[in-house]
Design brief:
Strand content: 15-25%
Largest sheet: 6 strands, mixed
Mean pLDDT: 84
Order of helices and strands: EEHEEHHHEHEHEHEEHE
Low-confidence stretches: 186-190
Distance between the termini: 17 Å
Helix content: 25-40%
Strand order of the largest sheet: 3-6-7-10-8-9
Shape: globular
Number of strands: 10
């Protein structure tokens, strides 16, 4: 894996952390406030930055509905917080520090259709601002809506990169499973990553 032309293993881990924001499938939440969970131990993060990133991620709506706002309590493991709210916190957390690259692994897995549409608007605005986004998903319909390129991996190996305009779902599925498939067949446990 290359980062700005350098082997990622040669890049200082602290530099990678500053330059790559990540939204994982499972958002780790700890006992503390909503603000604490968005900041996640980073120093020098202003309340304005927390509010700005929360607004971009939909976590601000969560704070607005609670009497304590960003000081609302979050329990260990996110007990009492919905899956969509966890994803919103993870997205806000990934945006803190304004990293130039975001990796989003199945970010819509716990979102409602309305939340998913809102996330797509966020991703489009990040793209317009010059951010690099790697979007990993099994939901091919999502990839067609928000990506420029689709990179297909099979069993952890690179297969092919296609532009979204030259791609169709059956072709992508065929590349994923390594054989021609019918239009209605869907792959099992295959990863597709897309770079926006």
């Amino acid at each position: 894996v290359m980062l700005d032309g350098l082997d990622a293993r040669a890049v200082d881990p602290a530099d990678r952390t500053r330059n790559i924001g990540a939204v994982l499938q499972e958002c780790w939440l700890f006992s503390g406030t909503l603000r604490d969970n968005i900041v996640a131990g980073r120093f020098g993060v202003s309340d304005d930055e927390v509010a700005e990133k929360a607004k971009l991620s939909l976590a601000a709506a969560m704070a607005a509905r609670h009497p304590h706002g960003f000081d609302m309590a979050v329990r260990e493991g996110g007990m009492g917080v919905s899956g969509g709210q966890r994803q919103a916190i993870a997205i806000a957390r990934s945006l803190i520090g304004d990293p130039p690259t975001l990796i989003m692994d199945e970010p819509t897995s716990s979102l409602t259709p309305a939340e998913t549409d809102a996330l797509f608007k966020i991703i489009r605005s990040l793209k317009a601002a010059g951010k690099g986004v790697v979007y990993i998903s099994h939901r091919l319909e999502e990839l067609e809506k928000i990506t420029d390129r689709i990179t297909v991996l099979r069993d952890g190996e690179y297969v092919k990169t296609l532009t979204t305009t030259q791609t169709n779902i059956p072709e992508v599925i065929s590349l994923m499973v390594g054989r021609k498939v019918d239009q209605d067949q869907r792959p099992a446990n295959r990863n597709i990553s897309s770079e926006i």
